[in-house]
Amino acid sequence: MESLVSQGGRAAAIECDVADENSVTTAMTTAAARPGQITGLFANAAIAATGRLHLLDLDEWERVLRIDLTGVFLSLEHCLPHMIEAGTGSIVTVGSLSSVVAVTGGGAASYKAAKGGVNMLTKSVAVEYAGAVSAQTACARALSKPVSPDPPSRRPGPATAGSADRQRAEDREETPVHDAPGIRRCGVQVVG
To answer: Do 56 and 110 form a contact (C-beta atoms < 8 A)?
Structure first.
């Protein structure tokens, strides 16, 4: 944000509880009262539960979905009218590779399900508001080493080049990103 302001742009960070609609409404009202128009939204609030599905209780499931998915919905619901009024907008939501590819680890099923919902909600916004508002989901996952963007079958070298990557991934109990179908569907649009 400091970088944007130092280049002559205007930005404000306004704290709110995304699981509380009144808090989101207040934040958007506060933002709208500032000079300029609301033309950008970065929806990043999230929590994660741990443990296997059969050990997850309903309260924890609902808490994760309330913050991770409903929080994005509320932010979009209350931000979109301002973007429509401005005639432009750019939305970036934060998903997770765990919502695109089934992997072990990386949080409980509630987190993965919520982030899958964020992915589809963002795609829906991108289609419904095309022309005035752009919407993208950034899907990321912490990696312990750089990963090739090409699947092992497309990399130069012996046919077994990917087997060492797969073994290291199995040792870490995760799927290597280059084997993730659909990963190129996730991206971030940076608006300057």
So the answer is: yes
CA 156 – CA 164 distance, rounded (Å): 15
In sign, the C-alpha dihedral spanning 113, 115, 116, 117 is positive
If you ran DSSP here, which 8-state letter would residue 67 be given?
A: I
* pLDDT band, residue 106 (cuts 50/70/90): low
Residue whose tokens read 């009262």 = 33
Question: What domains can you pick out in the chain, each with its CATH number?
Answer: 2-143 (3.40.50.720)
Rounded Cα–Cα distance for residues 104 and 96 (Å): 13
Query: Pick from 187, 185, 181: which is nearest to 101 by CA?
Result: 181
Give me the pLDDT at residue 49, please: 84
What contacts 187, CB < 8 A, 6 or more positions away? 136, 137, 138
pTM: 0.71
Half-sphere exposure of 132 (CA within 13 A, CB side): 14
**Residues in a beta bridge with 89:** 133
Catalytic residues: 111
